[in-house]
UniProtKB/TrEMBL annotation:
One of its GO terms (biological process) is DNA-templated transcription initiation. The lineage of its organism: Bacteria, Pseudomonadati, Bacteroidota, Sphingobacteriia, Sphingobacteriales. One of its GO terms (molecular function) is DNA binding. Keywords: Sigma factor, Transcription, Transcription regulation. This is RNA polymerase sigma factor 70 region 4 type 2 domain-containing protein. Residues 136-175 form the RNA polymerase sigma factor 70 region 4 type domain. It comes from Pedobacter cryoconitis. The keyword Cytoplasm does not apply. SUPFAM superfamilies: Sigma2 domain of RNA polymerase sigma factors, Sigma3 and sigma4 domains of RNA polymerase sigma factors. Pfam families: Sigma70_r4_2.
Amino acid sequence: MRTTQLVYHSYSDVELTAYLKEGDRAAFEEIYERYWKKLYNETFKRLRNMELVEEVVQDVFSNLWMKKEKKNIDNIYPYLLGAIRYQVYILYKKGKTPPHFEAPLDHLLLSTLQADSLFKAKELKWCISIWLTMQPVKRAEIFRMKYLDDRSTKEISEILHISQKTVQNQLLHAFSDLRAFLNRIMVFLYLL
């Protein structure tokens, strides 16, 4: 490792972001080295396609470098995660990749007996999978463990080494947010 890289390696994210904004290539390279693997893994969880994942991660970093002066970034890693999630959402929306979603959540389906039912199982799974990509990583993981892996809150708390109350709170927040998200989608579909 060159001396310059060693120096940048010790900089905080805030310092690196400030240098990046000034056009410092070494700061950008340090940010890339620090976070590309995490972003790759987060993207792969959502797309399960190595070529698309590489393209998305590369696009996010390219965009970061090209528009560095215009970006108002307080915290680089959450910013990059948000950019990744947005790119994944765009791919889903364009239909370039199906959302990765393994198991049904039948208990969330609207009754097919209801005349005003707007969702079928396939569309609901797709909406939920998009919603999951927008959730904080830990909340999405808890949601998947509970409703896809069919684990109890106690099992989840033991696996993740967090309290059972934290698991329950995350699930409450998840359901509240999911319900609001699905309501917005239904209103949108109704207006179409």
